[in-house]
Design a protein that fits this description.
six-stranded parallel sheet; DNA-binding; 608 residues; globular; 22% strand; seven-stranded parallel sheet; alpha/beta
DNA sequence: AGCACGCCGACT
DNA sequence: GTCGGCGTGCTC
């Protein structure tokens, strides 16, 4: 019986999201190995499709006559079997296609880059024995995980799962180069894993965090092992970094949310910093959150899992309470000095109370002061960063004022006195830390109707507090209650635990899971009917959905709630509905505009 | 998506 | 008789 090539065809059609068997012609006998890009005939001769050769089978699983592989595009084995398994599982969990996952996992091919890489790797098809890597000397000691007890190192070596409370301090990793302590911790963990001959994946929310991590790794002398995946880079550079992760040499992969899909043989560690950051939610189908992918990958491939953060996401808290993650704190404890101003009883509420002015004035004698504001630039209501800067300029006429916001972000400021007005998540790092931090606009933001404003605020405040110098005051203006208390006590887990308890009461995520179903009313109804075959809790809607289709057709949305234990059954049922609607739900070909397609999205954080 | 197969109306 | 409409179904 001849060997067959099992190929995933590159197509967005859900009904083609499975492996197709092809004969291997004698001319491709050597080239047809798992992981390579191929082209195959599909349906009729002459029509060629791109695809990935996923595996070689000993016999066909398809009863009909087989067509033959058309070509092997290149010998580069871009799809590792571990990544294929992960992509398949992620797609199945999200009722999506493996192709959509692989688009995140494998960057588009850049021929020049690939040729150069192939020339440097003469036998990419044959697995090589691991090269012995001698750790280069670095400025920061990588032997242990500084600031934590030996238990953390043991947990990482033992491939355990950890919710890690980051240390809210800055570290000077090279002369004049300051990074958050978390970056040093993750870098040290990654180097530790690499020295044991394994790879590490470190995923961050944005480029600012990526820079800190790269600086910490470079200071540790891990530059040679570093593969920085960067979505902002042009294609060839991205592909170059991706290719450098292939092969058997252990790498330290740093990148944005899609880095959780990076190829890594012998994975020793997968870590996220600040898993509550909304940038970890994937906006592209099949919308899998990087945290969930990391959990799946750790389960599949082993190695340690670390969710490091200054706050505790409600999702991570659920995993801690289940015993799935162990809660690890710094030893000895490190906390910023948070000063609540509370609500000014009797007085007219002011944006910046006198006590905050006083602390800022004192701090400006020694160094920079961070003023965190809610709104960017010239807010029409007069409280944007520019306006705030102008107001502060009048109050402190002799002080230099620096503005950092989404449009013009600064990454670093010096140690000299200055008022640094920054919008949330755009705060520069100050050399040595800020002499004081003022957190404004809390009360105004908390008025917003959202399930997770409190969590978001706590995360923004905590991350800003971590930029303060040791002992410097962090002033939380005009906020009281449990949220303020959790910041003052630096017990964000207490807040997360309370939130989780509330959501259990309400049946809201992450206590339960949910899937949103959007599309034409008949499609949505059919999908809901399919979901009801699975053991779901209930269905909300369908209701008319705001986003109307370009064709002018009505679009409805329904939300299905279900328990974690039944996720697989719900996904299978909804996947069936997606395939059926793709096959039958289309319009007569020709003049009609494209009909709205049925969309299924799991665990959308903004669904409710 | 494409492309073939298949079963009913007006045409040389 | 049969050319061709586009509804339905499949893609190794």
């Amino acid at each position: 019986m001849a060997r067959v090539a099992r190929v995933l065809v590159d197509s967005p059609l859900p009904q083609l999201d499975r492996l197709f068997d092809y004969l291997i012609p004698a001319s491709l006998e050597d080239a047809a190995v798992p992981g390579v890009r191929v082209t195959v005939p599909l349906r009729s001769a002459g029509r060629l499709a791109a695809g990935l050769l996923v595996e070689i089978g000993e016999s066909a699983s398809f009863a009909g006559p087989l067509a033959a592989l058309e070509s092997v595009v290149s010998p580069a084995r871009v799809l590792q079997s571990e990544v294929w398994t992960l992509a398949r599982r992620v797609a199945d969990r999200q009722a999506g296609s493996a192709n959509d996952v692989l688009r995140l996992a494998i960057p588009p091919r850049a021929v020049r880059v690939e040729k150069a890489w192939l020339a440097a790797h003469p036998h990419p098809a044959a697995p090589r024995s691991p090269e012995s890597t001698s750790p280069a000397p670095g400025r920061v000691d990588s032997g242990d995980l500084e600031g934590y007890s030996a238990g953390l190192a043991t947990a990482i070596d033992g491939g355990e799962r950890v919710a890690l409370r980051a240390i809210p301090r800055l570290v000077e990793v090279a002369p004049g180069q300051w990074v958050g302590h978390w970056a040093v911790t993750l870098a040290q963990a990654a180097v530790r894993v690499r020295d044991a001959g394994k790879s590490a994946i470190l995923a961050v929310a944005d480029y600012r965090d990526q820079e800190q991590l790269v600086a910490a790794l470079t200071a540790l002398g891990a530059g040679d092992s570093l593969a920085a995946l960067d979505a902002r880079q042009p294609n060839p550079a991205r592909y170059q970094a991706f290719l450098s992760c292939l092969g058997e040499t252990p790498r330290i992969v740093v990148g944005p949310r899609s880095a959780v899909y990076a190829p890594a043989a012998r994975l020793g560690l997968i870590a996220l910093f600040d898993d509550g950051d909304p940038l970890f939610t994937e906006p592209l189908a099949p919308y899998a959150h990087a945290r969930d992918v990391a959990l799946m990958r750790q389960e599949q491939q082993g190695g340690a899992l670390v969710l490091a953060a200054h706050t505790r996401s409600v999702e991570a808290q659920r995993l801690v309470e289940l015993g799935w993650l162990q809660d690890v704190s710094p030893s000895p404890a490190v906390t910023p000095k948070v000063v609540p101003t509370g609500l000014q009883h009797g007085e007219r509420p002011t944006r910046i109370p006198s006590s905050a002015w006083k602390l800022a004035r004192e701090a400006l004698a020694t160094g920079p002061v961070l003023v965190q504001v809610a709104r960017p630039g010239d807010d029409p209501e007069g409280q944007g960063s520019q306006r705030t800067a102008a107001d502060l300029g009048r109050a402190f006429p002799k002080v230099r004022i620096v503005v950092s916001d989404g449009e013009r972000p600064l990454t670093h400021v010096g140690a000299e006195p200055a008022l640094v007005v920054a919008t949330r998540a755009a705060e520069p790092i100050a050399a040595g830390g800020y002499a004081a931090v003022l957190l404004l606009d809390g009360q105004r933001t908390l008025h917003k109707e959202s399930l997770h404003v409190g969590d978001d605020c706590l995360r923004w405040w905590s991350n800003a507090a971590a930029f303060a110098a040791p002992g410097a005051p962090v002033v939380l203006v005009e906020v009281a209650g449990a949220l303020a208390q959790s910041l003052v006590l630096w017990r964000q887990d207490t807040w997360a635990a309370a939130q989780l308890a509330d959501r259990r009461q309400l049946g809201f995520p992450p206590a339960v899971r949910l899937a949103t179903i959007t599309g034409r009313p008949d499609q949505v109804r059919a999908a809901v009917a399919a979901a009801k075959e699975a053991p779901i809790r209930d269905v909300l809607g369908p209701e008319p959905h705001a986003a109307t289709h370009p064709g002018g057709e009505a679009v409805e949305r329904a939300i299905v709630r279900f328990d974690y234990a039944h996720g697989a059954e719900v996904a299978t049922a909804l996947r069936g509905a997606v395939v059926r609607s793709a096959q039958a739900g289309r319009r007569p070909a020709g003049r009609t505009r494209p009909a709205p397609t049925l969309r299924v999205k799991f665990d959308d954080p903004d669904a409710l």
